[in-house]
Task: structure prediction
Amino acid sequence: MKNIHLNLAFPPTVNSYYTKTRRGIFISKKGREFRDMCAEQCNEQNAYGLLLSHPLQLDVILFPPDRRKRDLDNYMKALLDALTTSKVWEDDSLVDGLTVRRGVITPRGMVSLRISAHDEFIIPNVPTIWDHID
Result:
């Protein structure tokens, strides 16, 4: 598989991705707008509808729009769901490897990501599984 590189809008945090009503918990207006924007951007970059179906490695760089403190992991839910909705892959459960890094402050913010095949699985070993990685 050839690596896929995408540049997308900065996602909403998981705290603003959902909204709670009397009928239950739903994706917020902000979350739906992000998914729609992501679908358009994936389409423009020829990634919409790829429907990848094998184990994937996802490398993400989040370029925040300002200096606020941010927990990087809070942005992954909206991003992964948007890529699923854009049919880049069948389901985000295919992501077997994920790295997230912070980039420099960028006006309006953005996300740069690389999707590649993931073909290396970690096997528990003695004395620790980290020997496999280090």
